[in-house]
Design brief:
Bound molecules: zinc ion
Distance between the termini: 33 Å
Order of helices and strands: HHEHHEHEHEHEHHHHHHH
Strand content: 5-15%
Structural class: alpha/beta
Number of strands: 5
Length: 312
């Protein structure tokens, strides 16, 4: 069992559909979920989900990584979590699971994860059906599979299928941003002098709802007028990634000089929202290569950013 770091928490959430995360936050998660994806990603997502369900913190912060339940989970000793081996179900697993389900839980919820639901024998699947059909209150089942089609239809029909998206490339640091961030942080490059402070102020004004998308676009054009357009957007995307990292419980790493600002701003959005914002900025950066006028491009970006902050 791996240790759940803030980063692990954030990676686990990635790839899970928004609808599922929203239901989780609203306390309305389905009792049985089938996660379909590459096995190690599905296993990570299943662990993240289980930890979030068992976490004692408010739902918007779960999994918090620091409560008693999260500590037990990370240590691999949570009494209300049961998982089959990552390599899939073995003979006797369903019986072992049913025996565990029959015991009284330590907390209000019990979560179990069954990996390799697409390789389950019909006998094992049939044994499991009743358990899935009549879930005890507060009991959640997480099944994982490589493909949905190969899961027996009886299991499929009793669980809610979620396709995990492949890890989107915009979530990892763009190598071309490294020099831009260094230039902004060193303050030796005159064209970047004070730029980061202006980016922080711009982000805060936008996130606190103080400007329309058109005002935001015009304001961005004005604060970034001395830096190359692409460099400015790369820096903005990296700054938003940093906020996402801090929101997920991590430290500001690439913008360590602005740790305080990152801590102040990060709680405004959810991790998933920051991911959508990074994507909007990276799309605007791609559009720079087409012939879209700069201000129009920035307006498109800001309309999307405003949507992300208001429609979740
Ligand atoms: Zn917790």
């Amino acid at each position: 069992m791996g240790v759940t770091t803030a980063n692990g928490r954030f990676e686990g959430a990635m790839g899970l559909p928004e609808a599922l995360v929203r239901r989780l936050r609203a306390g309305e998660l389905w009792h049985a979920v089938l996660l379909v994806g590459e096995p190690s990603q599905a296993e990570r997502a299943a662990r993240w989900l289980a930890q979030a369900l068992l976490c004692e913190a408010p739902r918007s912060d779960a999994p918090c990584g620091s409560c008693r339940s999260c500590a037990q989970f990370s240590a691999g000793s949570h009494p209300d979590f049961w998982a089959s081996g990552e390599e899939g179900l073995k003979a006797g697993d369903v019986e072992a699971l049913q025996a565990w389900l029959a015991t009284k839980g330590h907390g209000p919820r019990k979560v179990y994860a069954l990996h390799g639901a697409d390789e389950m024998t019909p006998v094992a699947a049939n044994r499991l059906l009743k358990t899935l059909e009549e879930p005890a209150p507060g009991t959640y089942a997480i099944l994982t599979a490589k493909s949905r089609q190969s899961v027996l239809s009886t299991l499929r029909s009793r669980s809610f299928t979620c396709l995990l998206s492949a890890s989107p490339p915009f979530l990892s640091t763009d190598p071309s941003s490294i020099s831009v961030v260094a230039r902004a942080a060193s303050a030796e490059d005159p064209s970047f002098a004070g730029f980061m402070e202006r980016v922080i102020e711009w982000t805060e004004t936008w996130l606190r709802g103080g400007a329309t998308p058109w005002e935001m676009a015009a304001s961005w054009q004005s604060i970034a007028k001395d830096v190359p357009a692409e460099g400015g957007l790369l820096l903005l995307a990296e700054w938003l990634r940093e906020l996402m990292r801090v929101r997920a419980g991590g430290q500001a790493e690439r913008f360590a000089n602005w740790q305080e600002a990152a801590r102040r701003i990060a709680p405004i959005l959810e991790v998933e929202q920051y991911a959508a914002c990074v994507q909007a900025v990276m799309e605007a950066r791609l559009r720079l290569q087409s012939h879209v006028a700069l201000l129009l491009n920035l307006e498109q970006m800001c309309v999307r950013l405003r949507e992300v902050t208001t429609s979740w």
